[in-house]
């Protein structure tokens, strides 16, 4: 019986040995793949560590007085007092979520940048509902308060201011001695309408969108002294300016304004 089982045991041992001999090549392939993967990851890490990065250095940052996108504390306080000087603070009930100064800051962010409501909510720590409600409230409140206020008046220059502006521009550009300001157009996007005729009038082929065209003239101090607003988007800057050229000619005297080639 023992001799009968011997061939079976020998055959089984041979099978096991044959199976064991097939494992090393698979292990070698697996190890090679792991090495290649580790080498690939190492090369990516080296590439990321040696490639050029763009850094913002301190010398590139403008000071508060030099930045064209900031409102000085004095100007902000003046605007705040104009809007909220006669507003009584709520003393009973649930207090307001945002202080009037924060509401003004939110409104200035909204009209002075291209940020969406979600970014404004992140900056001011408010919900979208509060953000929309405050912006809509400030738009109505600002128009009511600034409609007839001295700070918001757009008034053409008198002779004294025109002479002063001409001297300021001449100091910067000695070859120019009779320019008092600059005039340019501003196109603002507007909502589409279902009225075909109105939509066609408001559509601007240059911007490929529904726009509202405006013309502003401003002096070297940045203040606007002439404005014509809410013209259809299909109107060119030259066509809009043709409506106010007689007024400009009667008030500008011997001075000129700097414009681009889109104006007559």
Features:
extended, alpha+beta, 264 residues, 9 helices, disordered N terminus, five-stranded mixed β-sheet
Order of helices and strands: HHHHHHEHEEEHHE
Q: What summary fits the major beta sheet? A: 5 strands, mixed
Structural class: alpha+beta
Number of strand elements: 5
Uncertain stretches of 5 or more adjacent residues:
1-20
Beta-strand residue percentage? 5-15%
What overall form do the CA principal axes indicate?
A: extended
- The CA-CA distance between the termini, in Å, is 119 Å
Count, helices? 9
Percentage of residues in helical conformation: 40-55%
Q: What's the overall average pLDDT, rounded?
A: 80
Which oligomerization state do the chains in this entry correspond to?
Answer: single chain
Over the alpha carbons, how many angstroms does the gyration radius reach?
A: 36 Å
Explain what you see:
The chain has helices at 2-50, 73-84, 100-112, 117-124, 128-146, 159-172, 196-202, 237-241, 245-252, and strands at 179-189, 203-204, 209-218, 224-232, 256-258. By secondary structure, the protein is of the alpha+beta class. Among the domains are: 72-82 and 98-153; 159-258, no CATH class. Strands 1, 2, 3, 4 and 5 form a 5-stranded mixed β-sheet that branches. α3 (100-112) packs across α5. The protein is extended. It starts with a helix and ends in a 6-residue tail after the last strand. 12% of the residues are buried. Mean pLDDT is 80; it is low at 1-20.
């Amino acid at each position: 019986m023992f001799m009968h089982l011997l061939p079976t045991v020998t055959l089984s041992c041979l099978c096991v040995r044959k199976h064991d001999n097939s494992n090393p090549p698979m292990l070698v392939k697996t190890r090679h793949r792991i090495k290649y993967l580790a080498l690939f990851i190492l090369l990516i890490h080296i590439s990321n560590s040696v490639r050029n990065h763009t850094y913002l250095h301190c010398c590139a940052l403008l000071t508060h007085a030099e930045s064209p996108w900031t409102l000085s504390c004095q100007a902000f306080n003046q605007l705040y007092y104009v809007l909220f000087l006669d507003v009584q603070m709520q003393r009973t009930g649930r207090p307001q979520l945002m202080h009037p100064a924060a509401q003004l800051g939110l409104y200035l962010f909204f009209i002075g940048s291209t940020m969406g409501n979600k970014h404004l909510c992140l900056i001011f720590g408010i919900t979208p509902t509060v953000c929309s409600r405050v912006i809509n409230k400030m738009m109505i409140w600002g128009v009511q308060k600034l409609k007839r206020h001295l700070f918001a008046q757009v008034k053409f220059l008198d002779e004294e201011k025109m002479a002063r502006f001409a001297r300021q521009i001449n100091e910067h550009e000695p070859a120019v001695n009779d320019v008092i300001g600059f005039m340019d157009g501003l196109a603002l996007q507007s909502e589409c309408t279902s009225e075909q005729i109105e939509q066609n009038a408001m559509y601007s082929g240059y911007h490929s969108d529904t726009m509202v065209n405006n013309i502003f003239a401003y002096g070297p101090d940045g203040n606007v002294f002439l404005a014509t607003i809410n013209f259809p988007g299909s109107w060119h800057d030259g066509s809009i300016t043709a409506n106010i050229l007689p007024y400009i000619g009667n008030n500008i005297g011997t001075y000129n304004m700097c414009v681009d080639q889109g104006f007559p």
